[in-house]
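Example complex used in Figure S2.
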Amino acid sequence: MLAMTYRGPYRVRVGQKPMPRIEHPRDAIVRVTRACICGSDLHLYHGLMPDTRVGHTFGHEFVGVVEEVGSEVTRAKIGDRVLVPFNIFCGECYFCQKGLYGNCHNVNPNATAVGGIYGYSHTTGGYDGGQAQFVRVPFADTGAIPIPEGISDDDAVLCTDAYPTGYQAAEMAGIKRGDSVVVFGSGPVGLFAAKSAWFMGAGRVLIVDEYDYRLDFAKKFAQAETLNFRNVRDIVWYLKRSTDFLGFDAAIDAVGCEARGSAMQRLLGIHPFKLMGGVATAINWSIDGVRKGGVVSIIGAYGPVMNSVKIGDAMNKGLTIRTNQASVRRNLPRCFEHIQAGHIRPSDVITHRFPLEEISEAYHMMASKLDGMIKPLLVPSNTRTMH
Amino acid sequence: MRTQTLGSSSEDRLARPVPGGVSLDTGQRRATDRGAEIAGWGSDLDPTTRPGVPRDKAPDIGAESLYIDVTPQIPPHRIHKSTEHGQLTPVFGTSCPPHGLSGRLRDMAYRYSEGRPIRWMTLILADRVDMVEGVLQDFARLRPPNVVREMGLASEWRYNRKGVVKAAAVSALIGAAYLLLRRSRKR
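Predicted assembly (574 residues):
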């Protein structure tokens, strides 16, 4: 089958790989019909995530059709049109019972600090991802979710990660009626977080980024105020001033480990040194930008090494810091309801479509923010099936 | 728009109006309703409609289900296990078996717990060694990597031609300056 393969930092290609097979009786094989490149795939693409092996297939946002099921699969059926949350989870363990599907303890032998994720290095379990024609889906009865009638594949693929992740970011911010919320990052997750902040009753939402084209999009998509931090000398002062020196009630970090805005952090965390788990600039701006007793919600992805975070300010201000990988399965029913009620159309963030064969260009364009890209969609040429 | 005028080193900035206004007072907060302008506004205002509330859906369960009792997957090759796991997880990924020098480095890294920086730094080193091994493998198969294509640089030319020309001009200038410097030193 055709699949994207990683060759080293900034280098990916499409090549032939063996078909995935049922390796456990609860597995299924899914034929991919839509896949996306996520902003967090860029951390792998840039070689920032430890144990990213040459030959690995990325992709944790995909939907498709069930092609084959293992002997212990009871609910998923061949031919089902399914979306696959980016978390791999058993649905039964200590953490899954708590609803923390992103923290499942039974799917990632390589690390305990993170659960299993498709196509996201061996630090998250060593599973090949969905930027391919076919993919193995473990624990298919819980991990392959039928797409409800009336929800398109394009909307569904955004429900595998970006939309429920943005929703959870807003939820973790503990938003109350009239709250002011600042969202760092106007990529898809930041956009969905801003949209969801309105669902939760925010009175004001400000999105911060450095790309004007993204901020223009955010203004239209999320009806939010926007700020290009390059246009102000001191972002923290700006945030305080624009809230009458109170500070925002909540801040959401939807940027993660490749944030810009601090040369020192980038020097130590990305190039040339990789001494930290990326750049903590968005976290630090969040800590300084919220009011005392406020909430910082971190949904951006960081590496497993230590970060330079202003924890002293967080402590002195009595902040609540909420974090986690999104628990997609838990959020999905409510996310579907918002789509069906017409509150949101996730596929509006898709700006580009590529055949799988052009994945190298898609990665480069996304990483370099070319041609006004927000979200690229990959469409594998899967006219044939396994049977 | 109010401005601050005293005791600030950012006085010039403070005098400029900031769009977005000020924080709401108590009455304004309580009366906030943007439903007319924003589709779905306030539909999840009630925390009970939020799927993540409460965060812990089973606060009283014990540790007996940390590892579930299912048929274990059979490892087709060496699977690295974190020292912080009590056992190999029943299911795991099998992409990219460890191999060569990078595989040896990975074996070493997995001897340390996730709390030790040496584990992660060794894995990053293994990744770079793996990259070199990948290039050598490509050459051994008589299929040298097409780096320009793998890096997707055609899109740079298509969408950022001005930037490419500028970068090429700067590189040419630096190259020419270097050559001139070398030549003048030889003399």
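Chain B touches chain A through 93 residues (CB under 8 Å). Residues 82-145 of chain B form one domain.
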